[in-house]
Amino acid sequence: MPRSSVTTKRGGSTKRPVKKVATKKTTRKKTPIKKASAVLIKQASKKVQKTDGIKRNPLGHLLLEKMLREAGFRGGISTKKELLEAYSYDESIFSVRPQVVIQPKNRKDVEIATSVVAEQTKRFSSLSLTPRAAGTGLGGGSLTDSIVIDVCAHLNKIGDIVEKKDKIIFTCEPGAMWKNVEKKLKEHNAYLPPYPASKDICSVGGSVANNAAGPDSLRHGHCADWVESMDVVLHDGHTYTIKPLTLREFKMLIKQDHEYARIAKQIFELISKNEKEIKKNKPETKKNSAGYPLWSVMPQGIAKFKKGEGTFDLTRLISGSQGTVGIITNLTMRALPIPKNTTLIAIPIFNLEDAADSIVKALKFNPINVEVFDSLTFDLALQNPSFFKDRLSTSMYYKVMLSMYTTYHVRFRRKTPEFTVLVTLDEETTNRTEPFTISQKISSGKVKARVVSSPVESEMYWQIRRASYTLSKFQDTSKRPAAFLEDMTVPPENLSKFFIKIKALLKEFNVTAAVHGHGGNGHFHFYPLLDFTNKTTPALVEKMAEKFFSTAVKFHGNICGEHNDGIIRTPHLNKMFTNKMLDLFKQAEHLFDPDDIFNPGKKVNPRFDIKETIRTKN
User: Fold this and answer.
1) What secondary structure letter does DSSP report for 407?
2) In three state form, how does the secondary structure of 585-612 look?
3) CATH number for the domain formed by residue range(s) 343-530
4) Cα–Cα 20 to 30 A to 161, which of 281, 358, 366, 526?
5) Is 102 strand, coil or helix?
6) In this structure, what DSSP letter does residue 295 have?
7) Residue 148: φ, ψ to 5°
8) How far is Cα 108 from Cα 118, in angstroms, rounded to an integer?
9) CATH entry, 33-150, from 3.30.930.10, 1.10.357.10, 3.30.43.10, 3.30.450.20
10) What mean pLDDT is predicted for residues 471-485?
């Protein structure tokens, strides 16, 4: 594999409303770095900060613009107070102020930034690069006290969409917004199956870096499952095209003299020596984005790979790594034809104990998705009909609202189901078995599943499901729906017992939360309403995280289904994995990033104190 980068195909440019950092062109006389250092060292000597035992000397950040410009960096660089404040937040419960924000114009800029930081971190250990896309992450993964590298401002091109026999392939840069990629794919009657619920506001690169998933992931898996190849800038400042390798390709690669070859060889050796431990630690749940999935690099096993079966695939490890092992600059992904003539079955669950049994029965019919929302979500929808006005055309709005109130008053007899389960079946399934027959087989006792034949009723259910998170804000506008418990997953058969315990814990902590999620995966999203201006909230968050996460693991689940580790879950990975496995994660990260220049403190080696970094405003 040559060191030179793969040329990115250029398609139609898509822009997101982002404030671009102005590119400065200085006219002042250039001062040699050594001379500038002498002056700035004197100024900065009294400004050394300390966080979790790590010295934070600002000098490296003060010199950064000069070093980047001299190296040929063309993008934006800023230390403006208002910009740093904006980048101190994402959609998580945290706030961490960066020292510098940079916005690379192209892949070359990313290479330059990486090379400069890799070289200068030997002098200034507080320098690091944290990639940030649309900033919609819920775990604080894009927050840093060093350098933010914003890939959405300029690295947002979408390449060609190519249909090859039974494959639909497209390319895009990491900052391409999902909705823009989706719009272009629709022109080919195609879609990207692991789409997250946040697809209207998130980027494709950010989704891959978090290994995001969504409703159709029940059948189609996470973003990592749809990556054909990726261009990644590694710690040496070079871009490498990384893709699944056959045994022959792998042997050819490791003979070469560059960092990708070294990393591939050493990751192979790491997995080979610890295969038993890695397999033992693989989560029981189908959905997981916690840790580094070493079990997915060669899922067929070492012995079979050595015989020429399967592939060696580092894209599976880089997807979901949250920018801790390298920076993605281009993606090639597969898409699928949009499913047509689907059938929706709605299952109102009035007794929580019936939920798991109903969902397990539905799974026997290989549904595209099995989605859920709770009684509080339905109640909030009934109480706030005007919320849906901007989401629907005028005529459809009145039809959907009529359907919602008719369902509640007539069909449900003014009793809100504990859960409403939505099962989507494809045409092949319903051709094989009549939808009515399927609904009968799912039904039992007081559980009555029914086929939804009206498009308006179907739209009503999906509008409520998609609005659950936003509707939760209407409970108390002086508080914030807090994302820190929202990603727990258990095997579907344990879903009822798990959620009964969750409701008890919510009551114990005297908080309310609207619940929705991916029932087919036993995966819940819920956001307790908390007041972040209250000084007791950080301690409350720590206590709740401890109890809720332990409960998920108790029911053979995990704490991180699709939103990744970030600041919030990294310190709790010892609940899911053995100490030996945690050490293997550290070794894997170190092989990619020996000087820890990429997004330190996430996935391994947690260094952000949860209580100290929690936001203080709602």
Assistant:
1) I
2) HHHHHHHHCCCCCECCCCCCCCCCCHHH
3) 3.30.70.2190
4) 366
5) strand
6) G
7) -90, 130
8) 15
9) 3.30.43.10
10) 92
